[in-house]
TrEMBL record:
Lineage of source species: Bacteria, Bacillati, Bacillota, Bacilli, Bacillales
Residues covered by region (Disordered): 26-68, 352-404
Biased composition (Low complexity): 43-59
Protein name: Lipoprotein
Keywords: Signal
Length: 445
């Protein structure tokens, strides 16, 4: 019995020890499993935190992009090399000068202090334009085209054009178009210190609003009323009802697109672009306006001489070519003058050659028109044609003489006695000017 008892004790002890052994052996496994679970949870938490941070960062970035102003967006585009030949660059704007390259390859420097953005409601009517996009005219323009800037919350686009734009799809795939994503601009330039400086040099100008009445509608730009508005815009002296000069000009209009700018040297000049028109006064001293309607409430005015007196127009082929290109490439873009009805009416009367006062005294008007050309007034006729007094300090003018056809004429010399040119004035008072070789230079009253 004792043996059995002891055996039982041994068996129980073995079981107990074995139980203890199993219990001890299992403790490290539970601990490792717990650690692995904790590490996995921590890794998941870190991933969640990272994703959360990324989402927060993206959200903040999106908010920053959303809060970018129009002028900031435009400022960032000026840093893009893609448009540096079409638009004034950031460095040019900050340095105060930009370079324009003419068709002949000549580089012309211009000063610049600000870039102006003038909203164009007319362009806002463009078909198929991106949602929410507003259009601005940018000035100065770097070429003989209008620079249009379109901006919405997603992109900035540039359009370079010499013609009206009615459909966005007509230009978006052309070479005269550039588009920039604002988010990309922000990511590329957000740390650039030039942005704030550039933004301060981009200013909003007066909106290029057009009147609601028909006087500024597209179909009305061929009316005497519109011509009168152009005339008053380009020649402010005519806004004054008190015409102290006593001049009673008659005005005419014609389209000159495709004509040579310098008709006396056609091989070394350029032709007027599409849409260019001319308003001319008679006598010539009344002035002329060579312009193009930009269909946004502005016109481009070209500084074309009314007479080609300078010999370089005829003799210096290279100069004539470059000067012609410079004139066409550098029009002055101005907003149409908001003329009063009285001002418009007064100028409109010039287009049919009458005024209210003249209608009241036709007999007196006929006497003026039929004034005989004499030795006493022939110089006055020429000065009226030139728009200024003859320069007796620079030239010597011969005495006027009358030929067998009843025309008056005289020549003029430089101070060395060399023939410079001459004038012929017919019985109607029309002046024709000739150079030293007898080639016609111009004519008018």
């Amino acid at each position: 019995m004792k043996k059995i008892f002891y055996f039982g004790i041994v068996l129980v002890s073995s079981v107990t020890i074995a139980g203890c052994s199993i219990s001890i052996g299992n403790e490290p496994e539970n601990k490792d499993s717990s650690n692995n679970e904790q590490k996995s949870e921590q890794k998941n938490q870190n991933a969640q935190d990272s994703n959360s941070n990324n989402e927060t960062s993206k959200s903040n970035s999106d908010k920053e992009v959303t809060n970018i102003s129009e002028t900031q967006s435009v400022a960032m585009t000026l840093l893009e090399p893609e448009i540096d030949s079409e638009v004034i660059t950031a460095d040019e704007l900050l340095s105060g000068s930009y370079t324009q390259k003419t068709g002949s390859g000549e580089e012309i420097k211009h000063s610049v202090d600000k870039v102006g953005l003038s909203e164009s409601p007319e362009l806002g009517k463009m078909a198929n334009k991106p949602d929410g996009m507003k259009f601005y005219g940018m000035s100065p323009s770097k070429g003989s085209y209008a620079t249009i800037v379109g901006i919405n919350k997603d992109q900035v686009v540039y359009i370079y054009t010499q013609s009206p734009i009615s459909d966005y799809n007509d230009v978006k795939d052309s070479e005269a178009f550039a588009s920039f994503n604002i988010a990309d601009l922000y990511n590329n330039h957000k740390d650039n210190s030039k942005i704030s400086e550039l933004e301060n040099k981009i200013k909003y100008g007066e909106s290029l609003e057009t009147k609601n009445d028909s006087s500024t509608s597209q179909e009305d730009t061929n009316s005497d009323e519109y011509y009168a508005q152009v005339w008053l815009t380009a020649l402010p002296s005519y806004r004054d009802s008190d015409n102290s000069s006593g001049m009673k000009p008659e005005l005419s209009h014609d389209s000159i697109e495709g004509e040579y700018l310098n008709p006396y040297n056609k091989e070394h000049t350029i032709k007027y672009p599409k849409g260019v028109q001319r308003l001319a006064g008679t006598p010539t001293a009344a002035g002329q306006v060579v312009y193009k309607n930009n269909n946004d409430g502005t016109i481009s005015i070209y500084d074309v001489p009314s007479h080609f007196h300078d010999k370089k127009w005829l003799e210096d082929d290279d100069w004539s070519q470059k000067e012609s290109e410079s004139i066409i490439n550098n029009p002055k873009v101005v907003k149409l003058y908001d003329a009063s009805d009285e001002e418009i009416e007064r100028v409109v009367e010039m287009f049919d050659g009458t005024t209210k006062e003249e209608n009241k005294s036709n007999d007196m008007d006929e006497d003026d028109e039929n004034e005989e050309v004499t030795r006493d007034n022939v110089i006055d006729k020429v000065e009226s044609y030139e728009g200024e007094e003859l320069d007796t300090d620079k030239y010597t003018f011969k005495e006027p003489e009358k030929n067998d056809d009843g025309e008056w004429g005289f020549s003029f010399l430089d101070k060395d006695g060399n023939l410079v040119g001459s004038y012929i004035i017919n019985e109607d008072g029309v002046v024709t000017e000739y150079d030293e070789d007898g080639e016609e230079v111009g004519s008018g009253e």
